[in-house]
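It would be a great kindness if you could assist me with a short task in structural biology. The matter concerns a single protein, recorded as an amino acid sequence and a row of backbone structure tokens. Kindly check, if you would, that the fold set down in the tokens agrees with what the sequence suggests. Thank you for your consideration; the sequence and its tokens are set out here:
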Amino acid sequence: MTNKKTIVPPLPQEDLEHVLTHTKPLWEQVRGGRIFVTGATGFFGIWLLETFLYANDQLKLGAELVGLSRKPAAFAAKAPHIANHPAIKMHAGDVRDFVFSEGGFSHVIHAGTTSSAPVPPLEMLETITQGTRHTLDFAVACEAKRFLFVSSGAVYGEAPSKDHHFSEEDSTAPDPKNSNSAYGEGKRLAELLCRLYHDNHQLETTIARCFAFVGPHLPLDAHFAIGNFLRDALEKKPIMIKSDGQSQRSYLYAADLMIWLWTILFKGEPCRPYNVGSEHALTIKQLAEKVHGTLQLEEKVQIGTGGKISFYIPQTARAQQELRLQEWVTIEESVRRYFSWLKVNF
């Protein structure tokens, strides 16, 4: 499914205000400064750019953000309210070998790898590792103070049991005999690179291990179950579950995600990973029923059979206790907000 509108509108005002409310004191770190962001035009990237702009304008920070994109012109056509803002500069290049942007930067956010597109495992592994190494080299060259690496809960591999919530202290890992482990293994190696650059270059590298999310700009035609369900609802079709629906996931709303990422960048302890996500587990079947009930849909949920059962839920005590983070937006409210945004834009 593709967006019927060439230009996407700004994020909901209530979401931008929500992020600023819970991060306001932190932004003083970038007053008059510059931030560099890889993956600037993806799901995470658009949210990072727009929440930065809102804080920059509201607090009169006088800061600048440079975003890396392979196709800046296409992004400018899609989101002119972001790309044409005077505080935003787009830098063309591939995360693996981009030409270093000129000038100094106080903060670098590396969000330049996505798992939403079908990429061959070897290319996925190379993009993650080479891209992280290159972006770390850039952070050192531009004398950045802090570096945020957007990692993934995939570093833990498969959950050992149904009720297991992954902790940052878990020693589980992806299966190296499985080529589908390329994403998780790449993120693990990238985290090690962050540690090495911290030790060898005194770069304050912070790590956010991200799980599953929902909100505007989440792809509707990828492997994200909640995006697929909302697409079905938008098209007034029955919500389709291709499996028996017994796998478990949890979803953090994108505005909460931004609060967590900005907080980890500005306040996180270097080389101390923080899980980012919701602890409220739902089976895929329960999720479909939650979407159905929240939106009061007429068509019944259709459930398939079989499929591999997996469990992907974080434990977030570290972020809650050390950084005072929490899940402010419920799954029901997340569904309502995203669906309302979709109805305007599709």
Summary: The CA atoms of residues 210 and 276 lie 5 Å apart. The domain at 13-345 is CATH 3.40.50.720 (Rossmann fold). Residues 121-141 form the longest helix (21 residues).
